[in-house]
Amino acid sequence: MRNRLAHTSVRARKFKVAFHVGALVTLCALAACAGGRDEASRGLVIVNAPVAGEVRRVLVSEGMVVNEGTPVVEIAVRTEAQNAPQAKTEDPVERAGKNIGAAQAGIEAARAGAVRAEVEVQRLTALVASGDAPQAQLDAARAEYERAQRRLQEAQGAAADAQSGLVAARRQPQSTTAAPVAPAERLIAAEATSAGTVSVVSARVGDRVTAGQPLATLRAAAQ
Question: DSSP E strands: which ranges in the chain?
């Protein structure tokens, strides 16, 4: 019984020693990895694309020393070409129809004015004949009647022109194709976030890049 207990105690001590040794090795490995990552993060600076687009210009070369904020790559962001929204222009036939309507309204107004002027001439003619109105007043009324007649004739001529315009508009081919709009373009620079020396340039002019894609690698300047 005593031998069995002694054997168990020895085995437990061996297990504890092995456990502590393994834990120490693991901690050392983790510390080494963390140190390597920290050193790498301190030594290298990745310049990523701020937006998706096409590389228009590469502004640095390998071995070049740059400052923080220096443009590294210029990216062109373009909007797709599309048909321009058709300008709200009035249809020629519809416009001619409105002109006819306005001309007809002008005729009615001119005719009403001519009728009033004629009635006034008739009224003053009787008054002048009876001596109740001067001849000058009748002459003025007759002149106004003549002007009213001319306005009526002009309105009738405008109506005829509007009718001719409607006929011409109906003969014209109607175009519904909108002119394409040239794609717009704006340039956005990917800048160095730290001073350093350019070690790798991975972007080339004409490349299509996505937002966040690495464009260049810098070796950060010693602090």
Answer: 44-48, 53-58, 65-66, 71-78, 82-83, 180-181, 185-191, 196-201, 208-209, 214-220
Q: How confident is the model at residue 21 (pLDDT cuts 50, 70, 90)?
A: very low
Q: What is the pLDDT of residue 31?
A: 44
| The amino acid at 215 | L
Q: What average pLDDT does this structure show over 3-14?
A: 49
CA dist 124 and 143 (Å) reads 13
CA proximity to 54, closest of 201, 203, 165, 212: 203
- Single pTM value for the model: 0.40
Q: Tell me the angle at which helices 92-130 and 135-171 cross, rounded to the nearest 10 degrees.
A: 170
The 3-class SS string of 22-73 reads HHHHHHHHHHHHHHHHHHHHHHEEEEECCCCEEEEEECCCCCCEECCCCEEE
Query: What kind of fold does domain 44-79+184-223 have according to CATH?
Result: OB fold (Dihydrolipoamide Acetyltransferase, E2P) (2.40.50)
Give the integer Cα–Cα distance in Å for 57 and 103: 63
Beta bridge partners of 78: 185
Alpha carbon distance 185, 131 (integer Å):
86
Could you identify the residue written with the tokens 């405008």? Answer: 158
CB 74 within 8 A of CB 54: no
- Phi-psi label, residue 80: left if phi above 0, alpha if psi -120 to 50, beta otherwise: beta
